[in-house]
Amino acid sequence: MTLEEKKQQIIEDFSLYDEWLDKYEYLIELGKSLEPFPEEKKTEDRLIKGCQSRVWLDSELRDSQLYFTADSDAIITKGIISLLIGVYSGRTPQEIAADDFGFVAAIGLKDNLSPTRANGLLSMIEKMKEIARNV
Amino acid sequence: MLMLEDIRSQFPALSAKVYGKPLVYLDNAATAQRPQSVADTWTELSLQGNANIHRAVHRLAVVATDAYEHTRDVVKEFLHAQAREEIVFTSGATAAVNLVASSFGEAFVHEGDEIVVTVAEHHSNIVPWQLLCERKKASLKVLDIRENGVLHPKDLEKLLSQRTKLVAISHISNVLGLVNPVQEMVAVCHKKGIPVLVDGAQGVVHGQVNVQEMDCDFYVFSGHKLYAATGTGVLYGKKKWLDAMPPYMGGGEMIHSVSFSGTTYAPLPMKFEAGTQNFNAVPTLVPAIEFAKSCRDSQAVQKEQEAILEYVYAFLSAHPLITLYGDVRECKIPLFSFSVKGAHHEDLALILDKMGVALRSGQMCAEPLMDRLGVTGLLRASFGPYNTLEEAEYFIKSLDKAIKMLL
Fold first, then answer.
1. Residue B171 — left, alpha, or beta (φ > 0 → left; ψ -120 to 50 → alpha)?
2. Distance (Å, whole) CA B273 – CA B68
3. Residues of A in contact with B350 (CB under 8 A)
4. CATH number at B4-35+298-406
5. Domain boundaries, chain B
6. Residue B221: which of B97, B99, B138, B55 has the closest Cα?
7. What is the pLDDT along chain B (407 residues), one digit of tens a residue?
8. What is the DSSP string of B307-339?
9. C-alpha dihedral over A81, A86, A89, A94, to 10 degrees?
């Protein structure tokens, strides 16, 4: 699936939920099913510290493609991380650097991304782009 | 008799809906909602009484000056200060602490001296003192809380030394929600001749303040937490200190006579009110204080507040998954900071928001206290006099549902 197709699929998935609490339930499920992040990798240099939740992000370049793994102490953030990893992991650094991550707003999670809210999520997106630009 | 409905109807914000659900506003410790009377005062002065105060002789300036100076009298009565000169208007509690740290610090704090704060302070009662200590090569001593969150005068006594120049403590911590034994702590300090600044940002909202009885040397609070306009605040200072302190900011209003061979300063309180003051907003403290007093005098409000405190305290302190911080019933106000085992405060706050409940989550501008408690953040529900038991019940029901969603 291309990056655009994958994003479109998620937007469609989310359009099924009218209620906020249903969206959160879905994200909580996604968060719970996120591949475990090794405890020993939860180091200062991988930590993206927000005012609310903490996010750890790790990346690896294989065959010219970037693969991300991540974790958070907050489950809804973890659910959104799971979405982000699903969309961007395995893409080329060029694709990631050029993307505007606008689909997060399209599925109604813009509040979680407001730059005035010092949570780890916006910082995580910034970090993913930074990694993509610098490989 | 003033009923709860009469009070609620004064606050248009309280009938708002969020995400299609009635708003339950439980973030009062961050800022209180404004009653119509406050908005009206602001509008009236902005549109019909707008003139720069203290200088001009024209009619509008007299109206504006009267409104501003009348507010000083009202605040003086409210805090039971001895003289109106002891009331200085600032932009908020933070500005008031900074004023004292800067001005008192300039005159009385020297290399090797000590300032004492508590571990439970808001950042605005920590950082100005840190800056002062850096500037003066003084050191900051930290008074710890005891296990249940209380501050003890005896612990303070042990921390004081010959070099202690000032002690800064909160009347009520914005996280723990416990009324500190401020009067006893002041007495302990005064025995050694050490002045005390009390951060009353929460304290002034939750009970009568009598600065003469408390005998504190400084008392600060913000208008916006007390239903008044943002950008208003008060520094109460004993005249003997304010007289001895040098001006904080220079400019218009604070001078007596300006000349290049030497400027003389205005007497109190103008000495500390440099530049154009927030004269449209300061008078909103009058209806705000009137409202606060009417709540204190209302049996209906007091009964409801007691019922909320009793009910929420009982639920949170008994819940097997919940840790309530500041768990001392006798000195508790209806401000509850807590954590839920296995559920992150951010998740809970996000879910509760969608249920219509506005809470605060995170470090609440008290990072050192979070470290002390060993948490990365907490959830806080803080009630105001317009909140109802029904809202408290809805909050608890929603919290229960949110916990179930997350675990």
1. alpha
2. 12
3. 24, 76, 112
4. 3.90.1150.10
5. 4-35+298-406, 40-292
6. B97
7. 678 999 999 999 999 999 999 999 999 999 999 999 999 999 999 999 999 999 889 999 999 999 999 999 999 999 999 999 999 999 999 999 999 999 999 999 999 999 999 999 999 999 999 999 999 999 999 999 998 999 999 999 999 999 999 999 999 999 999 999 999 999 999 999 999 999 999 999 999 999 999 999 999 999 999 999 999 999 999 999 999 999 999 998 899 999 999 999 999 999 999 999 999 999 999 999 999 999 999 999 999 999 999 999 999 999 999 999 999 999 999 999 999 999 999 999 999 999 999 999 999 999 999 999 999 999 999 999 999 999 999 999 999 999 999 99
8. HHHHHHHHHHHH-TTEEEES--GGGB-SEEEEE
9. -100
Task: Report CA Rg, chain B.
Answer: 22
B345-354 vs A75-88: helix crossing angle, rounded to 10: 90
Whether chain A has a CB inside 8 Å of the CB on B355: the answer is yes
User: Would you say the ipTM is above 0.90?
Assistant: no
Tell me how crowded residue B362 is: count the other CB atoms within 10 A of its CB: 23
Fold that domain B40-292 belongs to in CATH: Aspartate Aminotransferase; domain 2 (3.40.640)
Q: What's the gap in Å between the CA of A33 and the closest CA on chain B?
A: 13
**Residue type for position B17:** K
CB contact under 8 A, B347 and A51: no
Task: Flag if B363 and A21 touch (Cβ within 8 Å).
Answer: no
Task: Provide the residue range defining the domain that includes A61.
Answer: 3-134
